[in-house]
């Protein structure tokens, strides 16, 4: 079971791997599309990698609700609980 | 009683391609759907796709590719022990495109049949061809991937029409003294039957057309959509996100298994030829497979779009044309698509 801080760090690593964005830039209140400039295709790749890393299932229809980094952290934390 | 004599090895002896000459740009596409050149390039890497004109059929394109493959292989059509065409856009449920092709080439009475495995069709064909040659059922097998997808798309369908193109690629498979086709890792997942496919069935067409006939206007029904949004003629549609996720995630594993089963390490590959579905899928697979930069990657999609069963042989053909030194090297190929179905193998490039 990962803490929210660990999930955030893990997500930042995945985002960095996919986009080259500095991990520090991946903050809870940042919107994936508007602030981090991540397109829908990169988002799918990030989701797939997050599923693997955190051992959770993020259904297709859930992805569009994950607007901010915080949304994703919360979803993963709940799914792990 | 006797059974046929087994052979130890098979390989691809020669390859051919047919690219139809109508070029459709992203700007052309944007007249049909709300999109932009930039969006399409960024999300898919596609710049143009080719389309066949009204007078060019799936069999015509298959013939063009097959003639070159036979010539390169140095094989006469009469020597073919089987003719296989992978296609989802031959517009007859029966008879097959393969039977017509065999006749045109002069391969009659070779057994001839079509494979319906969408974008995995070519790899399914290689699996079949390899098995037929090694089992002794045939000495030489022609495998063609041929698609006229422009016949089965609705230009205004935003989920898929902008991705697709027409074309054909062909190979001749025959006996070999050394291993030339690695074990095929192939399969299906029909639980995802719905994520990519035709809008409706031929039975629906019959009902729609009977209803239109009763109402006295078949042509109006062909142009209008019914209440489910169906036009009379069935066309392709997809849930792009589901397909994308499945492709990058599950397919990288399938490609890895094809490497493992062939006993080949990524650094031993000369080339990687994934189905040309989306440049972003290709890039992600390269990452997941940890392919070194020394591996040449087929990126024909930029010019050709997604040509379903034709995409892998077209992309391989081009790679060899532009880099003749790759000939004799190992290539990892993987096809995946509607079904869902998938197929992968390591092959020796002809
Ligand atoms: C088809 C594909 C490019 C669509 O990209 P996507 O990022 O999944 O697109 P989405 O449907 O999530 O839509 C994301 C945004 O792009 C827009 N969009 C969708 N299709 C579009 C198009 N053709 N042109 C422009 N914009 C489009 C959507 O309206 C949406 O905008 P919004 O965020 O403002 O609402 C992508 O899903 C894909 O390539 N999937 C794999 C499909 C494949 O390869 N199939 C064949 C396998 S054989």
TrEMBL record, chain A:
One GO MF term: acyl binding
Record's keyword terms, sorted: Cytoplasm, Fatty acid biosynthesis, Fatty acid metabolism, Lipid biosynthesis, Lipid metabolism, Phosphopantetheine, Phosphoprotein
GO annotations of cellular component type: cytosol; membrane
One Pfam family from the record: PP-binding
Post-translational modification: 4'-phosphopantetheine is transferred from CoA to a specific serine of apo-ACP by AcpS. This modification is essential for activity because fatty acids are bound in thioester linkage to the sulfhydryl of the prosthetic group.
Pathway: Lipid metabolism; fatty acid biosynthesis
GO terms for biological process, alphabetical: lipid A biosynthetic process
Keyword tRNA-binding applies: no
Residue runs in coiled coils: none
Positions of the Carrier domain: 2-80
Compartments where located: Cytoplasm
Keyword Cytoplasm: yes
O-(pantetheine 4'-phosphoryl)serine found at: 40
Family affiliation: Belongs to the acyl carrier protein (ACP) family.
Function (record text): Carrier of the growing fatty acid chain in fatty acid biosynthesis.
Entry protein name: Acyl carrier protein
């Amino acid at each position: 079971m990962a803490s929210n801080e660990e999930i955030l760090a893990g997500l930042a690593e995945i985002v960095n791997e996919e986009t080259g964005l500095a991990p520090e830039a991946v903050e809870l209140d940042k919107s994936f599309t508007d602030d981090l400039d991540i397109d829908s295709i990169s988002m799918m790749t990030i989701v797939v990698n997050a599923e693997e890393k955190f051992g959770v299932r993020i259904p297709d229809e859930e992805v569009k609700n994950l607007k901010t980094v915080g949304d994703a952290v919360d979803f993963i934390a709940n799914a792990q609980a | 009683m006797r059974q046929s004599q087994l052979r130890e090895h098979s390989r691809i002896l020669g390859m051919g391609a047919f690219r139809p000459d109508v070029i459709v740009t992203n700007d052309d596409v944007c007249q049909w759907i709300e999109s932009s050149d930039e969006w399409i390039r960024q999300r898919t890497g596609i710049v143009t796709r080719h389309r066949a004109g009204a007078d060019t059929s799936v069999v015509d394109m298959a013939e063009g590719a097959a003639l070159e493959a036979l010539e390169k292989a140095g094989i006469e059509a009469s020597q073919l022990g089987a003719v296989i065409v992978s296609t989802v856009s031959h517009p007859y449920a029966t008879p097959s495109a393969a039977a017509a092709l065999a006749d045109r080439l002069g391969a009659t009475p070779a057994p001839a049949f079509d494979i319906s495995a969408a974008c995995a069709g070519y790899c399914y064909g290689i699996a079949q061809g390899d098995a037929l040659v090694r089992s002794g059922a045939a000495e030489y097998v022609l495998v063609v991937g041929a698609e006229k997808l422009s016949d089965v798309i609705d230009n205004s369908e935003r989920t898929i029409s902008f991705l697709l193109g027409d074309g054909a690629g062909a190979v001749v498979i025959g006996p070999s003294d050394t291993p030339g086709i690695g074990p095929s890792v192939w399969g299906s997942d029909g639980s995802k039957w719905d994520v990519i496919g035709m809008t409706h069935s031929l039975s629906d067409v019959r009902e729609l057309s009977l209803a239109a006939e009763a109402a006295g206007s078949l042509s109006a029904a062909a142009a209008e959509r019914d209440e489910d949004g169906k036009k009379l003629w069935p066309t392709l549609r997809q849930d792009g996100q589901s397909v994308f996720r499945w492709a990058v995630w599950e397919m990288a594993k399938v490609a890895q298994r094809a490497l493992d089963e062939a006993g080949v390490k990524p650094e031993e590959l000369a080339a990687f030829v994934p189905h040309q579905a989306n440049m972003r899928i290709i890039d992600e697979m390269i990452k997941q497979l940890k392919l070194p930069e020394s591996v040449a990657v087929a990126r024909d999609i930029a010019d050709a779009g997604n040509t379903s069963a034709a995409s892998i042989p077209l992309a391989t053909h081009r790679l060899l044309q532009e880099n003749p030194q790759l000939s004799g090297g190992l290539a990892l190929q993987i096809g995946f698509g509607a079904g869902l179905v998938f197929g992968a193998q390591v092959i020796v490039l002809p």
